[in-house]
Amino acid sequence: MLSVLRNPTYRRLFGAQVVALTGTGLATVALSLLAYDLAGANAAAVLGTALAIKMAAYVLLAPLVGALADRVPRRALLVSMDLARAAVVLALPFVTRVWQVYVLILLLQAASAAFTPAFQATIPQVLPDERDYTGALSLARLAYDLESLASPALAAALLTVVPYAWLFTGTAAGFVASALLVRTTALPDVDPAPDLGPEPRPAGGAAPRPRAYARAVSGIRLVLAAPRLRALLALDLAVAAAGAVVLVDTVILVRDTLGRPTGDVPLALGAYGAGSMAVALLLPRVLERGDDRAVMVRAAFVLPAALGLLALGLTATPGAWSWPVLLLVWLVTGAAGSAVLTPGGRVVRGSVRSGDLPAAFAARFSLSHACWLLTYPLAGWLAVTTGPAASAAVLTAVALAGAVGAARLWPPADPATGRRTPAAAAASAAQVPAPEAPASSPTR
């Protein structure tokens, strides 16, 4: 897996991802504590709403940005969005009202909705070999785990010497460092988009739809055309249900339900990250011996099992056992979520042609975050109105529905092997009259 870092371009991009996500992890902890300061016992509702705004920005903007990505120099887009995110984060320590948090989160995530799909679509162009790309996906998963493991640990240490508001400064520094690394990296040229020509003017003289909008919709149609990509969205729902409970309800579970100090909030989030990181390290070897479907679907069923155990435990009177059990449940949830999410890029890459990757990644990014748009506010408002136990129970049912849906949508005889499904091929051919050769992937 680490051999992929021998590629100098990917090494610098991975470094940019690491420093940006380390800063984002600091912001996750700081935002939880800011919400608690502003709203007290209603912190879960505030945090759930803020994260729902984040997901709404992703859902609405990512497909459009993906459709426009090949019209803007890739490096300029990534650098400018990093700098925009740094500027917004520096304003968060100065908020005094809940609505101000919501506005800044919207601006921050609008920039992320432009940055992340463009970054994801760059990696398979830098690493065309499937084995290298699989290693890069595992490394990317490790980088994301810094947000829930290394960053919370760093946050816990910093909180002993500085107020939590200073954590936002660390986030801004991470975005600036990411921008500098990307700015000094030579990125591959983006494949030019085929000229589709102007759309015919409808009868009555109405103006045709903007081409960018049409291309954004075509990316979503491309994702929905392949059975395995529809199953991938069901898997995303299962992960979102479990992840929402972790990210939204942890501060309430630790501070109110268990009555533990502020410093234990990042420790609980760190347990979630530890499980995710451990699985990401093991997955490259596991995927060499098994297919993506088997790994991802089986892990998806672990998620409702872990949430169900949490819901059951919350109905009992808290005791000395409660804290270690919470850490164990978060550890298992992180591990299962990593096993579902990490191979996702392989499934997308093996289902569409190279020229469709930016639109496909943007569409999948948007649709998957629609799942989080549902689960974040659900977890937050249920925790406030009916209690953490009911919140965990409802999200258990959502996670189970996602796992069952994925098992039914993804045919066992059609594992993601890098060959495009007939549905994906037909959808792509229908959208682009002048087809190009599909990306080749060696058989695993």
Automatic annotation (TrEMBL):
Residues 414-444 are annotated as: Disordered. It is a multi-pass membrane protein. This is MFS transporter. PANTHER family: ENTEROBACTIN EXPORTER ENTS, INTEGRAL MEMBRANE EFFLUX PROTEIN-RELATED. The chain crosses the membrane at residues 12-36, 42-69, 165-182, 231-253, 265-283, 295-314, 320-341, 361-383, 389-410. SUPFAM superfamilies: MFS general substrate transporter. InterPro entries: MFS (IPR011701), MFS_trans_sf (IPR036259). Its main location: membrane. The lineage of its organism: Bacteria, Bacillati, Actinomycetota, Actinomycetes, Kitasatosporales. It comes from the Bacteria. It is found in: Cell inner membrane. Keywords: Cell membrane, Membrane, Transmembrane, Transmembrane helix, Transport. Pfam families: MFS_1.
